[in-house]
Amino acid sequence: MKKHSTGNFHISMRARVSIGVLLAAILAGVTLTSGALPRQENSGAKSAAELLDGFRHVEAASVSDAIEQITGKKTYMTHRMRPVFPTKFAGFAVTVALKKETNDDPNALQGMLAAIDSGEADSVYVMSVEDGADIAGMGGLMGTAMHARNFSGAVIDGGVRDVAYLSKIGFPVYALGIVPSTSIHHYRFAGSNIPIRCDGVDVKPLDIVVADADGVVVVPRAVAGEVLTLAQKMDFSEHSMYAYIEKLKSITEAVKKFGRL
Fold first, then answer.
1. Which domain does 254 fall in, by range?
2. Positions of E strands within the chain
3. Are 171 and 139 in contact (CB under 8 A)?
4. CATH number of domain containing 153
5. What residues form DSSP beta bridges with 178?
6. Are 26 and 117 found together in one domain?
7. How many domains is the chain built from?
8. Cα distances (Å, whole numbers) of residue 172 to 50, 94, 133, 211, 230
9. Domain check: are 213 and 161 in the same one?
């Protein structure tokens, strides 16, 4: 009986120690379970999803203004980068570069296809095509693969073709123009998920790409949270101003009140 009682005493003490450790972990914001790492990964993914959802509900113009205020840099693409059809999206950049090179290599462009097949949902395919304004960097087949993998869209520093089919499946693409040409035998894959320049803007893998009727903006991932918060404030102020301007018939008074132009 004494041995049994002692055993119960030790179990009770272990339980108390475990409870104490658990409470300390909770206060420290740590989860002590065998699934601690997946829980942290899920938490990170959720934060990324929330961030993306936020950028999907703000205007590209506000995002552009916010980035310029925070970083002092302009990260929007030029007026040449236009959508195949009116659209709005946001997603994480998957970067691809093509180098101009005449060749007969059947595998010269295999890497750009592999980048699509390895891309995650909510990706934006951002491609730099060297001197490619009159070369279609992508078309209906690539668009179909991206659509099937739930990419958010594509931004091509070059041309695009098969726009009727892209419009039919509703896959959004921004490009420098619509051309019937091909990159096969004229280009070689030069890398994926590397830093590139797309229409004069630096883009790194997992940067956030925001696009709407006003154009395309690239948000450096390191400042994405700060940019989103400021862009949301800017959106709120601007949207509040419309009714105020209509009521007072004065944009000067609205700017005085809201400080936004």
1. 227-258
2. 82-83, 89-100, 123-129, 136-138, 153-160, 173-178, 187-192, 196-198, 201-203, 208-212, 215-219
3. no
4. 3.50.30.40
5. 160
6. no
7. 3
8. 22, 15, 18, 10, 26
9. yes
